[in-house]
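Can anyone check this?
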Amino acid sequence: MSATLSWTEAVILGLVQGLTEFLPVSSSAHLRIIGPLLPSGGDPGAAFTAITQIGTEAAVLLYFRHDIWRIAMAWLRSLAAPGRQTPDSRMGWLIIIGTLPIAILGLVFKDAIETSLRHLQITATMLIVFALILAFADRWGRKQRSLVQLGWTHGLLFGFAQAMALIPGVSRSGGTITAGLLMGYTREAAARYSFLLAIPAVLASGFYQLYRSWGADSAPPAGPTALATLVAFGVGYAVIVWFLRLVSTRGYMPFVVYRLALGASVLALLAVGILAPL
């Protein structure tokens, strides 16, 4: 698909990326599913997905700019005075520690992530399985902890939950939010930390794929990919504002139902041959 991606298809994929990146529904799964249904057909690819995620993470940087600046400055000051930790400097260290699992596992399983793990049967199964786990966590999680109570063990567990999103269908935000709910964090705290934790991993992955694919024959087309990234940025910013307001008053059950319906639909489309597994 990469060589024939049209401008219109780029806008569609950018909209999909922006709409789904921050919701617990898996943006990579949506790009993987919708790509073959477009006129050019085919999997948009891991490189296209990672690069367009730069747009949505730019939206996170803009929305949380004050928090990010405060955390970054506190973390830098903590380097000069290791014994004087503040909640903000500790958050900086927790984000670094929480990023290690996805960085290590992403490198170890790089080939599988870009090939076999993009099998649509796996994607559909993950959509359904993690919908059920999210439903359990949202229903039975204690929802009492705030981010001030986040410690090193939970920070690492958040990181491993984020790493599961290397498999399309799990969802980066879905994995971390589910883990947060299971560990007793409030919906707002789990969602907020999910956004902050994703910044280093997503930006590193996106710029790595951009560097790696630069000038390669298999690289996604530069113009349409840049347009998709820009669209993802604008739509993603609006979704952040909406989503954080939503989770403060309502639960995650609508997303659970949506994931179940999407996963079942993909399995049905695979069964009748409308979608190819790879």
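Reply from J.R.: I decoded it. The chain has a mean pLDDT of 90.
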